[in-house]
Amino acid sequence: MQIEIQIDEHCTEPKIIIVTNKMTDEMNGIIKRLAGEQTQMIAGFQDDQVTVLEPDQIYRFFASNGNVYAETELGKYVIRLRLYEIEQRLASHSFVRISNSEIINLKKVRGFDLSFTGTICVSLSNGTVTYVSRRYVAKIKQLLGI
Description:
By secondary structure, the chain is an alpha+beta fold.
């Protein structure tokens, strides 16, 4: 990919032009990021306190007992969003859904164990171990280039 920047003193607003031979998923991703999506923060609730969670602090989101939780470096927080809403908000970050009830931060993964038949065991850097459901195994393998 070539990147070209032109400085024009008469330009009042930045303008981006993409020249390509066809639309690809990569182009769609670039357009999405350039369209003004800002860094998405998530509000986490713990007792009566609300904390703004940066995506880089979060290991995973998971659903349990009718609630959605964020597991972070500072503890576990209740999130007042559904998993699909979190997935949409953090699409430009390195979060990926691994089951119907869990989304993980790929930057916090220590390793993937493929020795289990039909599933993948995921070890996070905080010691949490979780599993990719069979429905999402192909997606994770494609993401990892396996």
